[in-house]
């Protein structure tokens, strides 16, 4: 583990903290396909960290390793100073890691508020036993959870649609509701799976602003994978670049932009 006292100051003056998650020599195979080849990098507290790369580079696979959904055949994942054992996705959620999905995974028939409330599930302490025995405690918890959900709804400026079924929303708004649901878990690391995919320019600008605001307001560490290079370069503090399962670049947006391997592999080819 690296020296936990380390940190750095960003160009815009934000203080980035110690390493919160570290990938050490991760290799992930699907049968004969090596989706991730011996990749190491870290994520620091308060950082916006992006993983980019062309189609099939291994970004989704890497996000699934970070989220605990895939367990790599080789390598180690370190989280908050200790090695993370293989665990179920709900256990990862309990450790403060929340995510959004590339293909929106909301309950379409339910209202925005109810969807955001589902993000509170990992926080609920009162089980069915206590709910049946002591209604007051469960009610108290319900009110507290609703307050958190409402605060996030206000923050993401979706209060006008809080009672609307998700099925009636535009794609861009659905993505914002998904972000709200992930935030409702009050995660210490938020994973975003191609948050701008399928969005028009205006929706992308809104989403960028909300990602920056979330990081600023709640000090949430954010790791995202994305195709849209422009957006990522504006948003991120540091960027990992993958190509054919390998890491070919890692650094600030400027460092990555000037990396010849990255230019060859990624910037030179049409994307999207
Ligand atoms: N579940 C799986 N089973 C078999 N092969 C897989 C699986 N998931 C990914 N792969 C393969 O692993 C490689 C990396 O895929 P991955 O989806 O991680 O890349 P990506 O960078 O996210 O791509 P995209 O930008 O197109 O989503 C690809 O060759 C892909 O076909």
Automatic annotation (TrEMBL):
Annotated InterPro entries: AAA+_ATPase (IPR003593), ABC_AA/LPS_Transport (IPR051120), ABC_transporter-like_ATP-bd (IPR003439), BCA_ABC_TP_C (IPR032823), P-loop_NTPase (IPR027417)
Lineage top rank: taxon: Bacteria
Keyword Nuclease: no
PANTHER family: ABC TRANSPORTER ATP-BINDING PROTEIN, CONSERVED COMPONENT OF ABC TRANSPORTER FOR NATURAL AMINO ACIDS-RELATED
PROSITE patterns recorded: ABC_TRANSPORTER_2 (PS50893)
Protein name: ABC transporter ATP-binding protein
Entry GO MF terms: ATP binding
CDD domains on file: ABC_Mj1267_LivG_branched (cd03219)
Assigned keywords, A-Z: ATP-binding, Nucleotide-binding, Transport
Domain ABC transporter: 21-269
């Amino acid at each position: 583990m690296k020296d936990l006292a380390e940190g750095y100051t960003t160009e815009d003056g934000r203080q980035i903290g110690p390493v919160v998650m570290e990938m050490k020599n991760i290799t992930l195979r699907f049968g004969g396909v090596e989706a991730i080849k011996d990749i190491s990098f870290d994520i620091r507290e308060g950082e916006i960290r992006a993983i980019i790369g062309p189609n099939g580079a291994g970004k989704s696979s890497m996000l699934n390793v970070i989220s605990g959904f895939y367990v790599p055949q080789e390598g180690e994942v370190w989280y908050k100073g200790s090695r993370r054992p293989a665990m179920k996705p709900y256990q990862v959620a309990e450790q403060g890691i929340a995510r959004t999905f590339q293909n929106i995974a909301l309950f379409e028939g339910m209202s925005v508020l109810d969807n955001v409330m589902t993000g509170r599930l990992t926080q609920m302490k009162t089980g069915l036993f206590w709910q049946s025995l002591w209604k007051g405690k469960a009610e108290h918890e319900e009110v507290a959870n609703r307050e958190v959900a409402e605060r996030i709804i206000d923050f993401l400026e979706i209060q006008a649609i809080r009672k609307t079924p998700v099925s009636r929303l535009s794609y861009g708004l659905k993505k914002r509701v998904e972000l709200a649901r992930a935030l409702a878990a009050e995660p210490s690391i938020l994973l975003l799976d191609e948050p701008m995919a399928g969005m028009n320019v205006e929706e992308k600008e809104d989403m960028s602003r909300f990602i920056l605001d979330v990081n600023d307001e709640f000090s949430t560490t954010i790791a995202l994978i994305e195709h849209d290079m422009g957006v990522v370069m504006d948003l991120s503090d540091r960027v990992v670049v993958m190509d054919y399962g390998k890491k070919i670049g890692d650094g600030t947006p400027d460092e990555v932009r000037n990396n010849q391997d990255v230019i060859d592999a990624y910037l030179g080819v049409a994307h999207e």
